[in-house]
Amino acid sequence: MGKVCVCGAGALQIDYAAKTLTASGQTFKEGDFLSINGTLGNVYAGQLPTAASEIVQVLVEKTLDGKKSETYGLFATLMNWCSKVTRMQVRANADTPEQTETALAFAPRASA
What we know:
Strands 1-2-3 form a three-stranded antiparallel sheet, with no helix packed on it. Helices cover 28% and strands 15% of the residues. It is of the alpha+beta class. The chain has helices at residues 54-59, 70-85, 97-105; strands at residues 13-15, 20-23, 26-29, 34-36, 43-45.
């Protein structure tokens, strides 16, 4: 729980004895920061700044107006279509109170 998982990272070479990890020709020692783009599979030295998706910004963080986000609008349209044809009512797993709050934020809404 609460741990990041990167699946299919076959290009990473981990030397447990030396406590190093080699990726993209760079070797990192235990304690070094590295950032992994899970979509592209790219590995970067250091900590890269990150931001929540626009969908999370609208539903969970409430820092973005959904009417101003094309990405959220597309998501809302897709979820509305899904809610019209689905019979399953469970869409999330939640192991912590924070995950429960996030799951509830993503709960289907009545369409206008």
